[in-house]
Amino acid sequence: MGVFDGPIRDIAELRPPRWGRVREVDDVVPWQLVDQAGRPVEPVYRYLRDLVAQGKSLGTVRTYAYVLQRWWRFLIAVGVAWDRATSAEVRDYVLWLRHTAKPGATLRKASAATAGTVNPITRKRYPGDEYQTSTIVHSNAVVHGFYEFWIERGAGPVVNPVPHERARGGRPQAHHNPMEPYRAQGRMRYNPRKPKRRPRAIPDALWVQLFGAMRSNRDRAILALDVSTGARAAELLGMRGADIDWGGQLICVRRKGTKASQWLPASPDAFVWLRLYLAELGELGPDDPVWQTLRQRRRGAGELERQPLSYDAWRAVLRRANAALGTNWSTHDMRHTCAIRMVRDQRLSLRDVQVILGHGHLTSTEVYLVEDDQEVIDRVLDHLADREQQPAKRSAATAPGYDAGDLAVLFGAG
């Protein structure tokens, strides 16, 4: 009888309960996972509190809370306490994520017919009902970090249930030189292989259609700035009145992650649309948000006034444009388009593009060194057309020993 690493569970029959919820509170930890009684889950609360102290963004804290909620629900379904989890539970958790539908799949209406299919215009795949590979990889990273936090404090399981792949030839770092930094231990054992995605620029003709689908000068200004600066949508939406340099045609954004301010050059066309939008908006103070709702709204008991444009509201603008055009462009496609356009400009170095995109490493920028599929197709079609014409040209030549005039009379040509 061999040694088993846990029971063989029927993954298809697992039905995790809809236990707990993630709520926003006025606390040092703004997002908390609470149980059925509304009490914060202590192990998760302490971990999230540590993340806040590390300076993690509120969005990161919120995302981690939801990931740990999903992990907690799975542990409840299999009847294992959080501090008794092993790699067997993580293995089954990954198998369950691969074979279950996301909670929102049953709520689909208009998008149900396109879920998981490829758009014939953009050639991009719509999000499906299953968990994506990147979601599983991110989930494993969050759970791994959660248990690392508790193991460092002498609590939880003795061994992290989210292990790295076994090192060949012995334990990891067995012959590490203390004078050199530790190397990364490689991928986690149950991380699925992530497919390599090639970034694609929006073709010029389709870009004109998308820009024409914008209904206001505000939306045109955001789109034009997005595709000329390469800034992320969330970075653009955080702009203030003082972040515009009209003379230098620059805008200032706060970079994701580092929160460092960076001035970016924008196209003259983008500044034209920005000026038209601000003329409609009226007076803008140096600390006022640049991007605001088109209509006045009341927040709480306050007066009617324009509200800052949120990321979800900007995504709704794109959804309306996509519905009208039959496309599925995303906010990040603008950044890809800008990056690929700059990389193909021989006057710009790869280092220039890296600085504009705000990449920490040049390898992140190198992914844009790709050939455009449509350009490759056009060149191959020209090649095939030339191949078709070459035999005709060769047959038109007169072989030695024959008179071209006689052949023309004989075959009715000329």
Automatic annotation (TrEMBL):
Concerning InterPro entries, the annotation shows:
CB, DNA_brk_join_enz, Integrase-like_cat_sf, Integrase_catalytic, Integrase_recombinase_N, Integrase_SAM-like_N, Tyrosine_recombinase_XerCD
Domain Core-binding (CB), by residue range, is 35-151
- Superkingdom of the organism of origin: Bacteria
Any idea which GO molecular function terms this record carries? DNA binding
One biological process term in Gene Ontology: DNA integration
Q: Tell me if DNA-binding is a UniProt keyword of this record.
A: yes
> What PROSITE patterns has UniProt attached to this entry?
CB, TYR_RECOMBINASE
Q: Does the keyword Cytoplasm apply?
A: no
Q: What is this protein called?
A: Integrase
The UniProt record lists the Tyr recombinase domain at 197-382
Which keywords has UniProt assigned to this entry? Answer: DNA integration, DNA recombination, DNA-binding
Species of the source = Paractinoplanes ferrugineus
